[in-house]
Give the backbone structure.
Amino acid sequence: MAGLQLDALTKRFDDTLAVDAIDLDIADQEFLVLLGPSGCGKSTVLRLIAGLEYPSSGTVSIGGRIVNDVDPAKRDVAMVFQSYALYPHKTVAQNIDVPLRSQKLPKETRSEMIAEAARALDIADLLGRKPAQLSGGQRQRVALARAIVRRPAVFLMDEPLSNLDAALRVQTRAELVDLHDRLDTTFVYVTHDQVEAMTMADRVAVIQEGKLQQVGPPSEVYDEPANTMVARFIGTPPMNLITGSPTKAPEVAPTDGREVVVGFRPEHVAITPDGWLRGKVLLVESLGHERLVHCEVPGGERVTIRVDPDDAIPHDGEPIGLAPTPGRIHWFDPSTGRRLP
Amino acid sequence: MTGRRSVYSSREVSLAFFLLLPSLVVFGLFVFYPLVRTIWLGFHESDFFGGNRVWVGPSQYIDVLTSPDTRNSLWISILYTLLTVPTGLAAGIGLAVLANKPLRGMSVFRTIFSSTVATSVAVASLMFLVLFNPSVGILSQVLSWEVFEHPGLLNDPSWALIAVSAATVWQNLGFTFIIVTAGLQSIPADLYESAQLDGLTPARQFREITLPLLSPTLLFGVVVLTIIAFQSFGQVDLLTQGGPLDRTNLLVYSIFDNAFGPSKDEGVASVQAIGLFGVMAVLSMIQFRILDRRVHYG
């Protein structure tokens, strides 16, 4: 068990800055999710923690010890790869045994530990099979078993659910949270799926373009995005962002008349004839439990509104008035994208 | 016809034959006819000029295939296979593993290591002929080992086959390097990363990941190199002409010698050729078996 500190962690590949001076404190036993779009550098951060990449500058500390020069095997971390990286020619039991054999533990101890890990992940009856004979979900469990078997201080996971089908993903999400509760280990989990981040994380660290954009509990990241990047990335559909100088808004923009980016989530806007924002309906999408109304507002920007299926639905081309919920409006600086107080 | 009716009309069948005709002609002329002719020649004895053929029957097959000469050549071919195949593969694996590291400039080494595929047996043999030459060869100049100077590796009965094998290993190195490199590159990189986190030393990674996952490639390599070894001719013809004391008289060279050499005898050569055909057929069957159930992992 150990906490984890990243201090100005930077990784450069030739001319590309993959990870840009990331500072991050991860508490002992925390479930931290690194969230960001593909290619944002989140996997590189995980690989730097694991020791599979060497930082260009900055440090990685595990349990208060700087581990930049420590061999991956000696960092007391275990990793679950997106592809699971199971040894195809070894049985499930032999796969789980690999890290234990490296620790030169006696055979009986190893057998006990393998049985225990297999029980914990409900794969005891698969121990004699080879990876090719397993389903995707079973392989994923074997990869988890191989990672937990040596009781690492930090558990790293690189998009472990991305190869599972939707139903299995929902089930495994809950199981991973349960596993985290049982193991009392620090989890660092990489994903591009915000649902995974929102449902599993103690804290979410949003990374974009190699930079840490915001770190905080899922509700905070959702309710108070630190900048327009985070606002656009979190939420489906994402937050509506309109640039302009609002004069009719019920809340006064914190910029005394200068241009500002106004943000509001699709669920935080009502369609009402006296709404201060005027729009024209472009398209109405029905998702069963809700409807999404896409409109165009003056200036050509698009706005999406989430509407209850029982409410009146406007027609395509109909002009409507929109009233974002007071207290749920976000203001951002148009030049820096930063949240205004 | 009492069975089910043909699904093809007679027009389609004749069209099919028409389209197959060019390959049938080529195969018939260059494969089937020579094969049947060789079997037929094996039942005959002829004089030096290939004339006055006399039917001697199947006894010639038994006589030739059990003769000390054929047995010697078969044994030499087996020895030569044992000398060239394992060493060639080991060298190929070694170079491929070395060149598989993601370092700058590695493509230069890859090009060099695979370059021998672009040389012919003749070029390789000539190089080694010069290299092994007792008076002007580099080996005898650099190394003061008696056998290099007198009588020279290629003239020493206990060294000649090893010297020919060395030339062969060198010539095949490009091929083995390429197939092993292809095999290595098909092993997912994350297995090695996972192994690193699991604490496997590089030696254990090689033993527990590389070798097992390379095994289908290596099996393929063994079969192909064995077939190449049994068909070798050029290096013997250029380096030793089967000598000294028949110590490098590989099967194919022996066939050539019997067919066109001083003791010219088509019948004997034909029987040996059919014998070699049998050996090759068995090897090819093994190869097809292996390729058929090409081990699938993951």
